[in-house]
Amino acid sequence: MSLLELTPSGLFCRQADIFIDPWKPVDKAVITHAHADHSRWGMKHYLAHQMSEEVMRLRLGEDIALETLRYNQAIVINGVKLSLHPAGHIPGSSMVRLEYKGKVTVVSGDYKTEDDGLCDPFEPVKCHEFVSECTFGLPIYKWEPQEKIFDAMNTWWKLNASNGMNSVVFGYSLGKAQRILNNLDFSIGEVFVHGAIWNTNQALLKNGLQIPDVPKVPAEIPKSRFKGALIIAAPSAMGTPWMKRFSPYRTAICSGWMNVRGARRRRAADAGFVLSDHADWDGLISAIKASEAEKVYLTHGNTAVFGKYLEEVEKIHAVELQTLFEGENSDLGDS
3-class SS at 256? Predict the structure, then answer.
């Protein structure tokens, strides 16, 4: 790569002396978004989008040295022009644009091309080199419009409520939970959230994100209060004693992995909704083509298959990079 090199600590821009989403402690880290596999503890100085600030302080410590930028706000570091651009993945998620001596490299972090109505929508950035995720880089992954997914979710909740069942929906605490919250039909019943999600919501509300401010599940509450309710829970709560208070209940998982036959059954959930904060096959291709990049570097996901497609069909030079990014974890760990 002309501006970046892969080191044991992560992607490094030597000219600017900065790392992007490093996985080991470094002096200067540019963070694409606040998920745990991209935003790690131990950096001396962080740079991220302003919508990531409160969540990063919640997760990494209030006293971290953190500088924030707006989208499209450019700074120059030792001759390298750096700016952040909407990735559409979760609130605050950014693609990092680096320009030096007329050459432009863009690091995507994680992204999705569908406008979810929650975060700033994805904006393609033209470049010479594009570092792209490909978590769902197989042609079997093609998402339906989110309106259809949430219509099905609200119908499922309403049916459960009419049958005397509470509804528990599992989704990542950052990004997925807020997206679900923004699309629920509150006329059906009350909505509660897991404590980890409530803490994340408060951080995002403090940063100015527009989401319903619903209560967290209280430690002491009559079971009758949950009658017909929907509870958004972190995946880490699956199968724990915490769930007993909602009985009788039905469970659902929200993940792109629900697109694979048997994934819901393996997790012992009653329902699965194919909802991902990553680009699907078509989204990946459209984003890469819109970048007009001459060379694409692929990280975390189906890099071999997707790279072969880019080379043979789209005639775009593709290179696999071995990184420690996880994308949307198939084991539904809560990042």
Answer: helix
Q: How many angstroms separate the CA atoms of 82 and 94, rounded? A: 12
Chain mean pLDDT for the chain: 93
Question: Exposed, middle or buried: residue 171 (CB in 10 Å: 0-12, 13-18, 19+)?
Answer: buried
Tell me which CATH homologous superfamily contains domain 146-273: Metallo-hydrolase/oxidoreductase (3.40.50.10710)
Q: Give the CA diameter of the chain.
A: 65
Position 322 scores a pLDDT of 84
CA–CA distance, 192 with 7 (Å, rounded to integer): 43
pLDDT tens track for 237-257: 998 999 999 999 999 999 998
User: Fold for domain 5-141+277-320?
Assistant: Metallo-beta-lactamase; Chain A (3.60.15)
How far apart are the C-alpha atoms of 255 and 171, rounded to whole Å? Answer: 7
Cross-strand pairs, 124: none
Indicate the domain borders of the chain: 5-141+277-320, 146-273
Query: What is the reported pLDDT for 189?
Result: 96
105 close to 128: Cβ distance less than 8 angstroms: yes
Note the pLDDT tens digit of each residue in 76-130: 999 999 999 999 999 999 999 999 999 999 999 999 999 999 999 999 999 999 9
DSSP code of residue 330: T
Cis omega (within 30 of 0) for bond into 139: no
pTM: 0.93
Which tokens sit at 323?
């990184």
* 238: its two tokens: 């699956």
Confidence of residue 329 (pLDDT cuts 50, 70, 90): low
Category of 283 on φ-ψ map: left (φ > 0), alpha (ψ -120 to 50) or beta: alpha
